[in-house]
Amino acid sequence: MPPASAAPARSARALAVSRIREGSPHPLGATWTGVGVNFALFSAHATKVELCLFDDAGETELERIELPEYTDEVWHGFLPDARPGTVYGYRVHGPYEPENGHRFNPNKLVLDPFAKAVVGRIVWGPELFGYRLETEDDTTYDERDSAAHMMKGRVVDPAFTWGDVRPPKVPWDRTVIYEMHVRGFTKLHPELPEPMRGTFRGLGHPSVVEYLQKLGVTTVELLPIHTFVDDSYLLDKGLVNYWGYNTIAFFAPARRYAAVPDFAFAEFKEMVARLHDAGIEVILDVVYNHTAEGNERGPTLSFKGIDNASYYRLLPDQHRYYINDTGTGNTLNLSHQRVLQMVTDSLRYWVQEMQVDGFRFDLGTILAREPYGFDEGGGFLDSCRQDPVLESVKLIAEPWDCGPGGYQVGRFPPGWAEWNDQYRDVVRRFWKGDEGMLAPFGSRLTASGDIFNRRGRKPWASVNFVTAHDGFTLNDVVSYDDKHNEANGEDNRDGHNANYSWNHGAEGPTDDPEILTLRHRQKKNFLATLLLSQGTPMITAGDEFGRTQQGNNNAYCQDNEISWVNWSWSEDDTQLVHFVQRLTELRRNYAVLRRNRFFTGEWNEDIGVCDATWITPHGVVMGPEQWSDGNARCLGVVLDGRAQASGIRKRGSDATMLLIVNAHHDVVLFTLPQVTGGRAWLRLIDTNLDYTEDELDAVRLKFGHVYHVTGRSLLLFRLLRSRRQNPTPATKNAPRLDRVPAEHQPTEQPATRGTTQMADAPAGAEPPPGKATARPAPEDDEAPEAAPATESPDETPDDDGIGGVTPV
């Protein structure tokens, strides 16, 4: 092993000596000041740092300059003759002592962690490793120069004219997230010029932006766009790291997503400006939990060669090895103040300089880990909570990791939203027809108050999703029983096995019309459930028109037609897009579908209203017997628009809705309940009907009408108020004739916090005698009598109906 100060052999060429000044220890990174560039690099354990300058292509090293100053563990210098476009890297000297956690090797050019742009790419070879790769012994020392195999940093001029465009600042309760991949969403788009496909410019193209607007999404969530690395083992198999969860530069947009790679920085800003101009927010999926350097046998690309012992969590008693709570080989050490600074500086940079509107944190539990485990009062979460920049944007956690105690859904602090995987699993199992899912389904439908209703958190804290990039697409959820990941080259061993999917009678593509009809209805059921649930909905790009990955539920390495969105739609696909438009319009127009208060199912004494009333197919309030029936697969819920909408104790003024779900395989007869103060129900959605029958016809149905709810279908109705309004003041003495007895509520938090269930009504069952009533307080003394069960509905479109939806 060479001495700690060993330097790489110099080439025979003479290296010019540039003028260098002391510079400043902050900000970190390479900063253009207008008269030169300040270079600053943190390393607590280095003995010397050399700045290496390269030609524009990053191929030839032109100059090597020792940074002259060391202040507060930061090496720094100012180069007056450097300009934007300067290509650079570092060689960091220090001890190579893996057993003590140190892996300095100045033969390895390392990338600046604060680089705002990069040049070139990683070219895999043994030169990239700090040890002699052929020995498989990471305690050995390699003297080969890695510069020819490394990407380099480039100095940028941040100037950009944003004009009058401002961030949309979409309120959480109005947010509809659309998770997408920059390349995959635009690669096959027929209206994009070929050079723009798969790029930031393509995503900002008017045809793409208009589609997103018409679909009704408010916020795009982009899979990782920070500069990342393609693993060598994938390249050897002809694959790539398509998803991008392998970051190496947290400040630099990926060149691969730019029409002109050297202008990725500017193209990203242009994309954001175009989306903002259309009122659409941009959220980034970010990976601050690990880096692309792997474990002790991984390459030396940046952090490992700059200060391994500071940047990574190492085993306490064996510093040669890494803590692997991420399952990727290493874990960033956010307990270290400088690592925490790098992450928060990166976040602020993307908000302030690149104008993004929020972040989704991959394996977010990692960020809240301290040496003793998860801590919702940990350094990173506290930093975000008090930071005036970060507290103003959307922060979404993926609240789990691979380490001990890694599953933390519902335990992030106020101000955070969280991916709710319990929503995904329960909703899939419910529509699949699994037993005992009705009560859990009700809880997920009402923003999972059993998980999130604490510490003043709001329903939007639950980010609801049925699918995401990781797993089946929606089409594949209803088309495959099993994963089919053979294309990944791992003998179908990768990916989740617990998909809670159902092929409905044939594995994969089929021509069977009955199966196709049922699959189409199930897709509508899933999308309607998602967009009519309380909480924040997240749609996966392409689910609205049945995108398939051919049964692959782990397409992380498939940069091809498996992952790319196919814009060739069938008639059913087009109808599904219109259906999603309809749903997003309903959600936008009716505040009761996106409340800022949790539904509890409790009677509000102050205003004489119950916010949510759960009813049986007979149209009566569910009691203990119904809630305890584990075979139940059908219920309804009346969401009362007069329920208290804020902390002010007064009645709300929203519409009242009736939602009916039937996961039973056969028709269930459902008696539409009478609600005092109303006169009829207006049908808005029936997933059994096609576009012209349902979305374009608002059908009025009388109280007591027995609706034949098709097996595996969902319905939504709006209450039509009485023509004559004579509300009764809410006082202690006001009559509450339809108040629900306490024993008719679930045993835990009403609105499905408990584990109760109800029974199906048998097909052909008759409703009980008399009126079918739900429990909102009286609002009019002339509400119409319930129609006889046999009476035909008035199918004349009602004046109170919703107008049409502009097709995509």
Please explain how this structure is put together.
By secondary structure, the protein is α+β, with helices and mostly antiparallel strands. It has 15 helices and 35 strands. Strand 20 and strand 21 (373-374) form a beta hairpin. Helix 9 (421-432) crosses helix 10 and helix 13 runs parallel beside helix 14 (571-589). The termini are far apart.
Topology summary:
Blueprint: E1 29-32, E2 37-42, E3 48-54, E4 61-66, E5 69-71, E6 74-79, E7 87-93, E8 96-97, E9 102-103, E10 118-119, E11 152-154, E12 177-180, H1 182-186, H2 200-203, H3 206-215, E13 219-222, E14 226-228, H4 232-236, E15 247-253, H5 264-277, E16 281-286, H6 303-311, E17 314-315, E18 318-322, H7 337-352, E19 358-361, E20 369-370, E21 373-374, H8 379-386, E22 394-397, E23 417-420, H9 421-432, H10 438-445, H11 449-452, E24 462-465, H12 474-477, H13 513-532, E25 536-540, H14 571-589, E26 603-604, E27 609-610, E28 612-615, H15 624-627, E29 634-639, E30 657-662, E31 668-671, E32 678-686, E33 699-701, E34 706-709, E35 713-721
Parallel strand pairs: 12-13, 12-25, 13-16, 16-19, 19-22, 22-23, 23-24, 24-25
Antiparallel strand pairs: 1-2, 2-6, 3-4, 3-7, 5-6, 7-11, 8-9, 10-11, 14-15, 17-18, 20-21, 26-27, 28-29, 29-30, 30-35, 31-34, 32-33, 32-35
Q: Helices and strands: which structural class? A: alpha+beta
Low-confidence stretches: 3-16, 726-808
Give the termini distance in whole angstroms.
65 Å
Q: Strand arrangement, largest sheet?
A: 12-13-16-19-22-23-24-25
How many strands, what sense, and barrel or not for the largest sheet?
8 strands, parallel, barrel
Radius of gyration (CA) equals 30 Å
Strand content: 15-25%
Mean pLDDT value: 89
Per DSSP E runs of 2 or more residues, the count of β-strands stands at 35
